[in-house]
Amino acid sequence: MDFSTKLNTHIARIEAGIDQLLPPVAASGPSGPRRIHEAMRYSMQAGGKRLRPVLVLTAAELFGAKSDALPAAIAIECV
């Protein structure tokens, strides 16, 4: 697999992970306040190169991670 294909595969996985792992925008309730969730999603879905989470996923592959590194990659992107 060439570099561009691998990069695009990681980016697609990261985009799906952001949608899956960030709290949904819903009315305030047990999962937290609506405005904060809206702000989190807005800032994370603004796009970008997603270089930091790609590096996390690539390092996990390189070193043979025993668990899924996607949550860590998404957390790094949130910072």
Write up this protein.
The protein is built from four helices and no strands. It is mostly helical and 79 residues long. Helix 3 runs antiparallel to helix 4. The protein is elongated and about 45 Å long. The model has no long low-confidence stretch (mean pLDDT 89).
In short:
The chain has 79 residues and is mainly alpha-helical. The chain has 4 helices and no strands. The chain has helices spanning 3-21, 34-44, 51-62, 70-78.
Q: Features of this protein?
A:
79 residues, mainly alpha, elongated
List the helices and strands and how they pair.
Blueprint: H1 3-21, H2 34-44, H3 51-62, H4 70-78
Could you tell me the strand content as a percent range? Answer: under 5%
Structural class, from secondary structure content? Answer: mainly alpha
Distance between the termini: 30 Å
The Rg value, from CA coordinates, equals: 14 Å
Write the H/E string, N to C. Answer: HHHH
Task: Say how many strands there are.
Answer: 0
Portion of residues within helices: 55-70%
